[in-house]
Design goal:
about 800 residues, alpha+beta, 6 domains, 5-stranded antiparallel β-sheet, 3-stranded antiparallel β-sheet, 26 helices
Length: about 800
């Protein structure tokens, strides 16, 4: 695992440096500089001093020995540098030679195949010429071919360490050098004192606005409109507890994106206020350097070097404070504890100060007579010090970062195992990466320190910009997706859908910002990722496909949500207007409409996305048509179910909740799907009936329901009296509040419907609502029985009398005499 990760780091890092080196032109010989009187006098003093003269002789002998080492073929005659400087790294072998080298002593001989150098070398792999993979492979090949030569040249730098010590001795012992250094020092101190006084005055002036901004800043808020909770005072003691070796307090609640967005304007205003003293310091320093204090060009350049170094440090500190805010948690734009923020700020100050002032000191050394070899040694020492400080920082924060990388300790799977293994060794990988960075820079990469510093600054700038973009985007999403109570009441269910889309859009925003940041970093590191996307045909097609796919998905979601919103709004309107029948009908059709809309949108979006990817969808459409015809012939019953169901629903034959009789089965409609009806019978059983089996529908829920009245009394009862009693019962029910709303009329008596020798039947009905039919009918029968019992009216009880005839002779037959004993 460790070896794989190390190889991955090499594969990512080496092409960036190689590409950056390949893009830099070969340095031309420096033009001759006229020697003034002061330089001539100093040179004469050096030659007259035996110790200094011996040092120069040693340096010249070292240069002569290094010049005697055969070098690789150079690109042109201009690459033959004068012997006053260390040899430059060899140019890429693929660079063609333009002009032959002039015949002069010390010049490198032309390569034997110089006539063929103009021919372009073929690509090592059969890749497209404008592809990113070809460019990466060519860059790696060029880098590896030059690595050995550059390493040998870098080892020569170690021999230049005595020259650095020689320069220090000259500055310490030479009277003219000491006087120059003293003059520069006291003038520089005066300039810095004046500029620092101006900065201190400006800093004092902005303290009150900065305090006001800190009080205006929001703390932690989950959503717009929620109250701001107070920050725990225990967070202020985090640094003390960390320095005492105790464990960190529990993590504070992560601020929401809306809170960070509300902080952002205040933080930007504070940034502008913090930059004001720095700008005044720079102005005061430059102005003082242009006065009589900058007596000579040398003094003025030294002053400007240190003034600009201080300004650069202060600007970086202010930008770091923009994110960390170690003293103001309510203005912090990253999720860190107070102890972690203060520790990070402290290490940023140390590392940035060493890097910038070390570089400024090396450049000032050049102005004061330091040799190029000593200058390179000093720069590499500064770089090594920065790497050591970064390594110390990494080892101090290895445990918190490891806990963050592990995440959920109970998680399982390959990815969780990979995260745990990486968390155990991440600090070793990071230190290895830093060491590799310093080693590759130390192999005499042309303009190496500038390249490393540029990559470092660019990486920090991209990271800060990405964080600000995430804060702005996520805060805007929080604000846009916040549903006010009035809108939630007007559109039921919109709050849940907004939360769903909020998660998806946040994920898409994070991915987009991460991809953009990676592309920008590759471009700044030397891999032309953005150039490849904009210039190559494949890159343009990729951008076009991604853009059109995103636009298609966005339009599809807009159509889907717009249709759902229109349906919900229409349902709410029907509910306000008390149109329950139309509302129930629409709710019945709603699942079918949503299913059909989703299938249609999904098919269109899928075909458009496949077309943008580059897949020819014409054969796909033809094949889908053939498959559709085959499925149509093989599933005629299914198609019949769908068509019959659509027409039954459009004709409003039934709705959910109706009591219907379908295909001889009676029950309450529970659900209407695309092709079936689900009925719940009175005994609790469920009937699922396909629409194709429905030939007739009997629906008892269509506004009216008649409670039938049928009374059969014996033949001897008075039918007029019975009819009067029935009307009295119906009238009494009409006055009962429980049944009055369910009865639409009184008893409609139809009269005596049937008379036979044993009974008479009286018929009638009561017009009721569809829901009140059976309750009214049952209550009428109950009261009828009670009233008939009170009045003594008999109900007809059909009795069958069987008469068995007896034979006449059996009646007159004499009794049989018993025998006498």
């Amino acid at each position: 695992m460790v070896h794989s990760l190390l190889l991955l780091l090499l594969a990512v890092f080496v092409p960036a440096l190689a590409s950056a080196q390949a893009t830099q032109p070969v340095a031309a010989p420096a033009p001759s500089v006229p020697v003034d009187a002061d330089a001539a006098r100093r040179a004469l003093q050096v030659l007259q001093d035996p110790a200094q003269r011996a040092t120069i002789i040693d340096a010249l002998e070292t240069i002569a020995r290094m010049q005697g080492i055969p070098a690789a073929p150079v690109a042109s005659a201009g690459a033959a540098a004068p012997a006053a400087s260390a040899p430059k790294p060899a140019a890429p072998a693929s660079t063609p030679a333009t002009t032959p080298a002039p015949s002069q002593p010390g010049a490198a001989a032309a390569p034997p195949n110089a006539g063929e150098a103009g021919r372009p070398e073929p690509l090592p792999l059969p890749l497209a010429p404008d592809s990113l993979g070809a460019q990466v492979i060519v860059a790696i090949s060029d880098f590896m071919s030059r690595l050995a030569t550059d390493s040998i040249a870098a080892l020569r730098t170690a021999k230049s360490i005595p020259s650095l010590w020689g320069w220090v001795q000259v500055m310490a012992t030479d009277p003219l050098a000491r006087s120059t250094l003293a003059e520069v020092s006291w003038r520089l101190l005066i300039v810095l004192a004046v500029a620092l006084a101006v900065e201190w005055a400006a800093w004092r002036a902005i303290q009150r606005p900065r305090t006001a901004l800190r009080r205006m800043a929001p703390a932690l808020s989950g959503r717009p409109g929620e109250p701001e909770p107070e920050i725990s005072a225990d967070a202020e003691t985090g640094l003390v507890r960390a320095e005492a070796g105790e464990s960190e307090p529990p993590a504070q609640r992560r601020p929401s994106a809306w809170t960070l967005l509300r902080r952002l304007p205040i933080v930007v205003v504070r940034l502008l206020l913090d930059l004001l003293p720095i700008l005044l310091f720079a102005a005061a320093g430059h102005f003082a350097a242009e006065t009589d204090l900058g007596s000579t060009r040398l003094v003025r350049l030294v002053m400007l070097a240190f003034v600009d170094a201080y300004v650069a440090c202060r600007v970086i500190f202010v930008l770091a404070r923009l994110l960390l805010s170690p003293r103001s948690p309510q203005l912090r734009l990253v999720h860190l504890s107070d102890a972690a923020a203060q520790d990070a700020m402290r290490w940023i100050k140390r590392i940035v100060s060493v890097a910038i002032f070390g570089y400024a000191g090396a450049e000032v050394g050049l102005l004061l007579g330091m040799t190029d070899a000593a200058h390179r040694v000093l720069l590499k020492a500064v770089g090594f010090t920065v790497v050591v400080l970064l390594a110390i920082t990494i080892f101090e924060r290895r445990k918190p970062v490891a806990r963050w990388m592990v995440g959920d300790p109970d998680a399982t799977g390959r990815f969780a195992s990979f995260r745990r293994q990486t968390a155990r060794i991440w600090h070793l990988l990071a230190v290895f990466y830093l060491g590799l960075l310093w080693v590759v820079w130390a192999v005499e990469l042309r303009n190496g320190f500038e390249q490393v510093f540029r990559v470092f600054v660019a990486t920090i700038a991209v990271g800060i910009t990405s964080r600000l973009l995430l804060i702005l985007g996520q805060g805007s999403l929080d604000r846009a997706m916040h549903v006010r109570p009035s809108i939630a009441e007007r559109y039921p269910g919109i709050e849940q859908r907004a939360k769903l889309y909020h998660r998806g859009l946040t994920l898409a925003l994070n991915i987009a910002v991460a991809v953009l940041a990676i592309l920008v970093l590759f471009q700044l590191w030397g891999l032309p990722a953005l150039t490849w996307l904009g210039a190559s045909l494949l890159g343009r097609q990729l951008l076009s496909s991604v853009g059109m796919t995103g636009l298609t998905v966005a339009l599809a979601l807009a159509v889907w949500e717009g249709t759902n919103a229109a349906i919900q709004r229409h349902l709410a309107k029907l509910a306000r207007e008390a149109q329950t029948a139309r509302s129930a009908r629409l709710r019945t059709l709603l699942p079918l409409l949503r299913t059909m809309l989703f299938i249609t949108v999904a098919i269109i979006v899928g075909l458009m996305v496949l077309s943008e990817i580059g897949l020819n969808i014409a054969p796909l459409l033809a094949g889908a048509g053939i498959v559709g015809v085959a499925i149509g012939f093989g599933s005629q019953k299914l198609v019949q179910d769908l068509i019959t169901g659509i027409f039954l629903l459009l004709e409003n034959a039934m709705q959910v909740g109706d009591m219907v009789t379908v295909s001889g089965l009676t029950g309450t409609v529970e659900n209407l799907s695309v092709r079936t009806i689900r009925l719940r019978a009175t005994d609790g059983s469920v009937h699922i009936i396909p629409f194709s089996s429905v030939t007739s529908v009997t629906n008892t829920n269509r506004g009216l329901g008649n409670a039938s009245v049928s009374v059969t009394v014996p033949y001897h009862e008075d039918t007029d009296h019975v009819s009067t009693v029935l009307k009295e019962i119906a009238a009494a029910m009409g006055k009962d509040p429980e049944f009055a709303s369910k009865m639409l009329s009184g008893l409609q008596l139809w009269g005596v419907d049937k008379v036979d020798g044993a009974a008479a039947t009286i018929l009638g009905q009561i017009v009721c609502t569809d829901a009140g039919r059976y309750p009214v009918q049952r209550e009428f029968n109950r009261r009828l029985k009670i009233r008939f019992q009170e009045l003594g009216i008999d109900m007809y009880n059909p009795v069958q009398t069987i008469v068995v005839p007896v034979a006449r002779e059996a009646a007159v037959r004499p009794p049989v005499s018993e025998p006498h004993p």
